[in-house]
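Ops channel
N.P.: pipeline sanity check, posting one input/output pair.
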């Protein structure tokens, strides 16, 4: 994950440089019972580049490291009865407290379907932080006392229930990571994403200019940047009015 592991700098420098990265880069730690689920999402494309450039570090931590017994137990039945296991408070508290010794977290975020709906505004806010700790629930979720005592923010990625918080965590990291300065090649491109302006993005085209008789709008071929900008804005407004009129009400 760090440059030393990828051979970018001498091993002896590692502790110092890692500390430096903790201050400059954004660091996201993720506590999960299924770390394998988070292997691939950060190993490709933009997220991979962000990590290689030292702009983002993502570390997953297997909750079983803090299991309460030799059976690697981290969950138990819920008091009061009912189907489904609950992640116990002890391993989670120990995990959080151990990780907190390394970094002062700006936010400790629990991914849960009953959290606040994740949106671009939240991604923008979180992209300004240095250190985030994400907690992925599994089964029936986590003991309420962890939510009360440690969690600073609860986020849902949509009104549906997934089997755990790992995929939501990956979505959060992607949405936040791509906003970090220097991550995207053309830094301005995130500014024109859908939602950044409370508008959906305009249609985009590439070659060929004529695809089986379906032609690219003439204005995009004429090379007048001002006209292109106006056209794109009109298209954004029209698309938003048609597909997401609720966004124009704000
Ligand atoms: N865990 C399970 N479902 C979820 C959702 N919709 N959002 C965030 N975390 C979740």
């Amino acid at each position: 994950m760090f440059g030393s592991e990828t051979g970018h700098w001498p091993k002896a420098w590692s502790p110092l440089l890692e500390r430096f990265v903790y201050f400059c880069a954004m660091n996201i730690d993720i506590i999960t019972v299924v770390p394998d689920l988070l292997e691939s999402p950060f190993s490709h494309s933009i997220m991979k580049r962000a990590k290689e450039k030292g702009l983002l570090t993502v570390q997953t931590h297997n909750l079983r490291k803090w299991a309460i017994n030799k059976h690697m137990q981290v969950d138990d039945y819920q008091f009061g009865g009912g189907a489904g296991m609950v992640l116990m408070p002890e391993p989670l508290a120990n995990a959080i407290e151990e990780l907190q010794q390394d970094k002062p977290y700006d936010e400790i975020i629990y991914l849960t379907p009953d959290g606040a709906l994740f949106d671009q505004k939240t991604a923008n806010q979180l992209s300004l932080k240095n250190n985030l700790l994400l907690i992925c629930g599994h089964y029936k979720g986590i003991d309420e006392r962890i939510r009360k005592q440690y969690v600073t923010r609860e986020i849902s990625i949509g009104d549906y229930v997934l089997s755990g918080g790992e995929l939501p965590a990956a979505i959060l990291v992607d949405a936040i990571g791509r906003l970090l300065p220097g991550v995207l090649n053309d830094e301005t491109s995130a500014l024109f994403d859908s939602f950044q302006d409370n508008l959906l993005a305009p249609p985009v085209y590439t070659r060929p200019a004529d695809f089986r008789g379906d032609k690219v709008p003439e204005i995009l071929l004429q090379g007048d940047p001002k006209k292109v900008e106006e056209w794109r804005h009109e298209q954004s407004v029209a698309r938003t009015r048609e597909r997401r009129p609720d966004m124009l009400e704000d």
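N.P.: looks fine end to end. Strands lie at 26-32, 56-62, 75-77, 85-87, 107-117, 131-136, 153-156, 210-211, 214-215.
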